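Example 3.2
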Amino acid sequence: MDLSLIIPCYNEAGNLPKLLNRCVRLVETEHIEVILVDNGSTDESPMILRELIPRHPRCRTIRVEQNKGYGFGILSGLQVADGHILGWTHADLQTDPFDAQHGRTYFDRFGDDIFVKGRRYGRPISDQAFTVGMSLFESVLLRRPLWDINAQPTLFSRKFYETWKHPPNDFSLDLYAYFHAKRSSLFVHRFPVRFEKRGHGMSHWNVNWRAKRKFIARTVQYSVQLKKAIDA
């Protein structure tokens, strides 16, 4: 298997049919698989996945019975992935899973010792300002340029994944992977990814400024832990 793309799904029942249809073009080659992780959903997601997955070759699903965080869902998918290249994206349809195919081509050109990540465009000004602020904070604190940290897709080699130790179970996983790629001196390739409106449902963190403050607090706390690890 060339590429395994993990898509964590938490209460995404409204998005799953369209998401799987978009995955059809991605898995046209037998060398790509998509693993949809039912990350402890409490809506109709499990039923929809059971019904639709058999109709989509090279797409499979696993279920996490209790939601322990966005990162935990991704890590659960990575543990069962078969691909030489691994990665993840979101289920909310704000980015197209086919973007991962564009990202995969960088490995054909440059080999395994790289880290590939989308770079979002088309976002609201307020979200862009928030991202710039967080990127500046992380870059200064961790002494490495880290921009648009939560952009998708995120792709890397299995060899790099096997070096991970104690990755976080929440949204800090994006920062963890990006930071460790920089620390491991992997060349980071970014490519433009169109950012669309969410298909159905609501974001679990980008709802209002109260939710963003909680997200910032968790991210800052984890960033300080990374800083201590650098200085140790």
